[in-house]
Specification:
Layout lengths: L18 E10 L2 E11 L4 E5 L6 H8 L9 E4 L2 E2 L4 H6 L1 E4 L11 H11 L4 H14 L15 H12 L6 E5 L7 H18 L2 E6 L10 E6 L2 E7 H8 L4 H9 L10
Length: about 260
């Protein structure tokens, strides 16, 4: 299938997209890892960036977050170009990376207050933001415990709380449920979907797990650095003539879809 038109709908009726990526390519030396990638995350929408390991998902996230510099195309967050107005753009962005980044020797509250300080929040403001964020992810009663006492799923929820401290409009989550048992996976996904439904956040959820795509989601299939489909999940199934996301993914990419068994 040829590259589809970018997603044009919006879950929240806001005409300014949470994230817009237009014509972005990227290479490491002679190896091109992204090839003319375009996608849109409407404000108030849950968009799944679906691709196998090595598809280019993490590279795209690195470009959006300015860990890498995009030298082609355009990336905007809430209308702010990440190259021309990085401060304004990144103020609208919360990120949960695939690698664990909490300090295990600090408490949940200390981790969040330290992150708040990086954003310029101090004292009572930082403490209130941290308390609210921990309440959102269901861990307010454990704020005084050290991170090392948490399960993998609980630690991931703290990372989501940390990403909310500066009240962003857009969340990027890179393989947020990898390595978690099925109960923890469901808990993490539920929290993020509630943020979309209740707070109108735009979410780009990168995963290789087909069962994390739901009928109401938008889906962007990224394969070997190229977008093969961008649109609503029912349209994805219809366009491939398949009845499941796994079958549709296999058909469009010519690969075996990946399933992760619960631990």
């Amino acid at each position: 299938m040829t590259v589809q038109n970018a997603i044009s709908g919006s879950g929240g009726g806001d005409s300014i997209a949470a994230l817009a990526v237009k014509g972005v390519s990227h290479a490491f030396g002679d190896k091109r890892v992204l090839d003319d990638v375009s996608l849109i995350v409407p404000q108030g929408a849950f968009v799944v960036l679906l691709g196998l390991n090595g598809a280019g998902k993490s590279t795209l996230f690195s470009l959006v977050t300015r860990l890498y510099d995009n030298v082609s195309g355009e990336i905007t967050i809430r209308g702010f170009d990440v190259r021309r107005k990085p401060s304004q753009a990144l103020q609208k962005l919360g990120v949960v990376f695939q690698s664990r980044t909490l300090d295990s020797d600090l408490t949940l509250l200390q981790n969040l207050k330290y992150h708040a300080a990086l954003h310029g929040f101090q004292g009572r403001d930082a403490a209130e933001r941290a308390a609210h964020a921990l309440e959102v992810v269901g861990l307010a009663d454990r704020s005084g415990e050290k991170v090392r006492a948490l399960s993998g799923g609980q630690a991931r929820r703290v990372e989501i709380a940390r990403s909310l401290m500066h009240r962003p409009d857009l969340l990027l989550l890179d393989e947020a449920t990898v390595g978690l048992d099925i109960g923890s996976r469901e808990s993490v996904v539920k929290i993020v979907r509630e943020l979309v439904a209740n707070q109108g956040l735009g979410v780009l959820w990168a995963t290789h797990l087909m069962d994390e795509v739901k009928p109401g989601d938008f889906v962007v299939v990224l394969h070997k650095g190229r977008v093969l489909f961008s649109g609503a999940t029912p349209d994805f199934l219809k366009s491939t003539g398949k009845t499941t996301v796994s079958e549709a993914f296999r058909a469009i990419t010519g690969t075996a879809a990946v399933r992760e068994e619960a631990a």
